[in-house]
Specification:
With about 260 residues, this protein is α/β, with parallel strands linked by helices. The chain has one domain: Rossmann fold, CATH 3.40.50.720. The protein has helices at about 10-25, 35-50, 65-75, 100-130, 150-170, 195-200, 210-220, 230-240, 245-250; strands at about 1-5, 25-30, 55, 80-85, 130-135, 175-180, 185, 205, 225. A seven-stranded parallel beta sheet has the order 3-2-1-4-5-6-9, sandwiched between helices. Helix 1 runs parallel beside helix 2 and helix 4 packs parallel to helix 5 (about 150-170). The longest helix has 29 residues, at about 100-130. It is globular and about 55 Å long. The model has no long low-confidence stretch (mean pLDDT about 85).
């Protein structure tokens, strides 16, 4: 049996792979669109922890990417009992200025491919009456923040979708856990090193290795959802109920919105 992790070449995905190899001695199928880094991670984990590792290059933002990954596993006899849908992307940009290709890639990666991966890999898990699925949403799933309109909307989809299929798959002893983290200390957000260290020290951002360990514990406990970090439980109710005039006032402080008219109506 293998654990399949998408976005496994760096960041949280790599930490999931490290934790599963080191602490759970699980064989791994690592999927990413960063081919060279992916192979390095696979070789490193195999050498250090003595587990089987398979590196599979795939661009999960493409049409039918999930089918291709599933066929690769099926054709090579790799049975997957842990599926971790971690691959993601992020950009901060007004929708009317965002390149169409970037918007399409995010919708495909976060929503379409994730749903198809769950559908394909859940079927044999249900037949075997055992399996774990871990999906990555975000605390932004509850927020309507300008500039990340595609990100928070797709994460809201992941959150709702995961909780729905949790109840569909549970009778087959297949669990679905959705994680809704706040900030994680990875290069995803484009912060400089000094700022990253500061927000970790303040408890605003979690180190990826700590988050991955928590997420895997919740997954193996078959928890439906989890949001690590005390500050996130405080921030979500506040930010999700900000009045629109206050949001538009805050927007004026960002250069992306300086030339956009702010009507009061």
């Amino acid at each position: 049996m293998y654990a399949l992790i998408t976005g496994a070449s760096s960041g949280i995905g790599k930490e999931y792979a490290v934790c599963l190899a080191r602490d759970y001695k699980r064989d791994l199928i690592l999927v990413s669109n960063q081919q060279e880094q992916l192979q390095e991670v696979a070789d490193e984990l195999s050498a250090y922890y003595g587990v089987k590792t398979v590196a599979h290059y795939a661009d999960l933002a493409r049409e039918h990417a999930a089918d291709e990954v599933y066929r690769f596993c099926h054709d090579n006899g790799y049975e997957v009992d842990i599926l971790i849908n971690n691959a993601g992307m992020f950009f901060w940009q007004p929708l009317i200025e965002a390149p169409a290709a970037k918007v399409h890639a995010m919708l495909m990666l976060h929503a379409v491919t994730l749903a198809e991966m769950c559908r394909l890999f859940a079927q044999p898990m249900c037949e075997r009456r055992n399996g774990y699925i871990l999906n990555m949403a975000s605390m932004t799933a509850w927020m309507t923040i300008p500039g990340i309109q595609c990100y928070n909307s797709t994460k809201a989809f992941v959150y709702s979708f995961s909780k729905s299929i949790y109840n569909e798959l549970r009778p087959y002893n297949v669990s679905v856990t959705v994680m809704t983290p706040g900030a994680i200390d990875t290069p995803l957000y484009g912060l400089d090193d000094k700022t990253r260290r500061r927000v970790v020290r303040w408890g605003i951002s979690l180190p990826p290795e700590k988050f991955a360990a928590i997420a895997l514990r919740r997954m193996f406990q078959r928890r439906k959802q989890a949001m690590p970090g005390w500050i996130n439980h405080v921030a979500v109710p506040i930010i999700s109920h900000l009045p629109d005039p206050l949001i538009r006032f805050a927007m004026k402080r960002f250069p992306q919105y300086k030339n956009i008219p702010m009507h009061n109506s």
